[in-house]
Design brief:
The protein is mostly helical and 53 residues long. The chain is 23% helix and 0% strand. The protein has two helices and no strands. The relative contact order is 0.24. The structure holds zinc ion (2 copies).
């Protein structure tokens, strides 16, 4: 309960990372080797937020 929610380590992703992981999804984890402008995690709101920035 005191665990702090980390943000996904993907630079273009705004999703919270899954417990025990630095990323919110496999998509983001695999994308770490590639500089992605947008996120492909598919989480609602993520792509919208990325384009709004
Ligand atoms: Zn994302
Ligand atoms: Zn992510």
């Amino acid at each position: 309960m005191a665990e702090e929610t980390k943000k996904c380590a993907h630079p273009a992703c705004i999703c919270p990372a899954e417990p025990g992981s630095n990323y919110c999804s496999t998509s983001c984890r695999e994308a770490k080797d590639t500089i992605e402008i947008s996120c492909n995690c598919g989480h609602p709101g993520c792509e919208l937020a990325a384009s709004a920035a």
